[in-house]
């Protein structure tokens, strides 16, 4: 999960995409996403804006290679569709996947999450926005917990041993442990938030 | 295959716009119930939902040969209905923002994941009174049935939505069912272990007292 990279780039970046007005950025995002959704037949009509987006990423000082690699991920799932649709539509399907994915990744790597969630709060209920903030913070905590857990298991020789079923059971116990940790963690966060005057 | 991996622009807009409308309708419906909750309960539930959503996001970004666990059944059992729905939405929104999905299918995926949670919650309750099944078997059966039902929902939605792309329904269904059944068996096995583990330490999280 590249959330560390995304968070760091969004908050520390200094390119023109970072300093652009967020409303303008969201409008451009919505327009380009609309193009991806509604242009169905012409590969070249979509390929032009895709190249322009790549150029914008490059000139904004972002790592084009890294962002392109991140945008490849949904392509794997697109393969399931690609093998089941007529051949002449495969190229435009792949372009749509890459374009929409790169577009979203560009938005979140150039906009700090607080600013993005502020705009989400305009259309989403308060409870959902509060859950979003807590989720964002908890992802980092859990990623660290999982990393330490796997490191300690590796050091004790607990990883990579046993049959497939034994590994599944081990994975199940890890999930169970993380769920119990989540209860303790949420009680702790909730009490702290209350003391600091946070009222939901 | 227990939630849609459909890229933007594949589904017809009538389907994903309707799904977004249904999600906002459910926000209004559940919002009224949540507002009536005592403040202390609501605060704890909101925080716990956020923490569980983060776990789901981490699990859903694991990729095991095209399948990734959703933890939706377990989250549904632990959180219950209104907050389970919020968690489905938030986890799908985050995944879409991280480039692991499509923005247009957030609404549909929320409904699919929520349906999976509902199947799980009600099946688990229904199997609760069956005395000849132990906790592992109950949890395994609940998770497997919920995942298979939601897989069928995903397949149906993908075929209906992908009609304009001339999707070969038979080929797509076969590939999806094979991936879905293998993945669901694996997920059911480890979710059942997780439920037994939690039940042993904190039974109140699994079996809610009235």
Explain this structure.
By secondary structure, chain A is mostly helical. Chain A folds into 2 domains: 3-119, no CATH class; 124-195, no CATH class. Chain A is built from 10 helices and no strands. In chain A, helix 3 runs antiparallel to helix 7, helix 4 (43-59) packs parallel to helix 7 and helix 8 (113-120) packs antiparallel against helix 9 (126-155). Chain B has 210 residues and is mainly α. Chain B has one domain: Arp2/3 complex 21 kDa subunit ARPC3. Helix content of chain B is 74%, strand content 0%. Chain B has helices spanning 13-35, 39-60, 72-79, 81-97, 106-127, 135-161, 169-201, 203-206. The longest helix of chain B is centred in the last third of the chain and has 33 residues, at 169-201. The relative contact order of chain B is 0.16. The model of chain B has no long low-confidence stretch (mean pLDDT 85). At the A-B interface, helix 3, helix 6, helix 7, helix 9 and helix 10 of A face helix 1, helix 2, helix 4 and helix 7 of B.
Order of helices and strands of chain A: HHHHHHHHHH
Helix content class of chain B: over 70%
Quaternary structure: heterodimer
Give the biggest sheet of chain A.
none
Based on secondary structure, the structural category of chain A is mainly alpha
CA radius of gyration of chain A is: 21 Å
């Amino acid at each position: 999960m590249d959330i560390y990279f995304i968070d760091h780039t969004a908050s520390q970046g200094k390119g023109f995409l970072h300093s652009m007005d967020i409303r303008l950025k969201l409008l451009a995002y919505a327009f380009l996403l609309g193009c991806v959704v509604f242009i169905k037949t012409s590969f070249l009509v979509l390929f032009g804006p895709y190249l322009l987006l790549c150029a914008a990423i490059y000139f904004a000082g972002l790592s084009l290679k890294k962002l392109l690699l991140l945008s490849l991920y949904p392509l794997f799932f697109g393969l399931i569709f690609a093998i089941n649709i007529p051949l002449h539509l495969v190229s435009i399907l792949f372009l749509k996947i890459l374009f929409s994915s790169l577009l979203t990744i560009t938005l979140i790597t150039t906009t700090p999450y607080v600013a993005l969630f502020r705009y989400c709060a305009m259309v989403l209920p308060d409870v959902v926005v509060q859950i979003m903030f807590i989720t964002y913070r908890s992802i980092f905590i859990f990623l660290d917990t999982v990393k330490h857990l796997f490191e300690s298991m590796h050091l004790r020789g607990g990883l990579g041993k046993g049959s497939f079923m034994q590994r599944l059971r081990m994975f199940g116990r890890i999930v169970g442990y993380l769920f119990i940790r989540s209860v303790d963690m949420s009680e702790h966060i909730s009490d702290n938030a209350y003391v600091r005057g946070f009222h939901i | 295959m227990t939630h849609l991996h459909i890229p933007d622009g594949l589904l017809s807009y009538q389907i994903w716009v309707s799904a977004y409308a249904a999600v906002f309708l459910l926000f209004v419906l559940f919002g009224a119930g949540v507002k009536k909750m005592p403040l202390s309960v609501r605060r704890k539930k909101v925080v716990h939902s956020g923490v569980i959503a983060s776990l789901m996001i981490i699990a859903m970004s694991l990729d095991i040969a095209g399948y990734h666990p959703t933890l939706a059944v377990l989250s549904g059992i632990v959180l219950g209905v209104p907050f389970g729905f919020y968690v489905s939405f938030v986890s799908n929104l985050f995944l879409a923002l991280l480039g692991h999905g499509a923005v247009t299918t957030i609404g549909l995926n929320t409904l699919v994941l929520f349906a999976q949670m509902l199947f799980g919650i009600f099946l688990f309750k229904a199997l609760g009174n069956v005395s000849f099944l132990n906790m592992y078997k109950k949890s395994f059966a609940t998770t497997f049935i919920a995942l298979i039902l939601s897989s069928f929902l995903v397949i149906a939605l993908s075929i209906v939505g992908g009609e304009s792309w001339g999707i070969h329904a038979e080929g797509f269904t076969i590939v999806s069912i094979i991936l879905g059944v293998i993945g669901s068996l694996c997920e059911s096995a480890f979710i059942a272990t997780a439920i037994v583990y939690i039940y042993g330490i904190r039974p109140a999280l699994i079996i809610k007292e009235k």
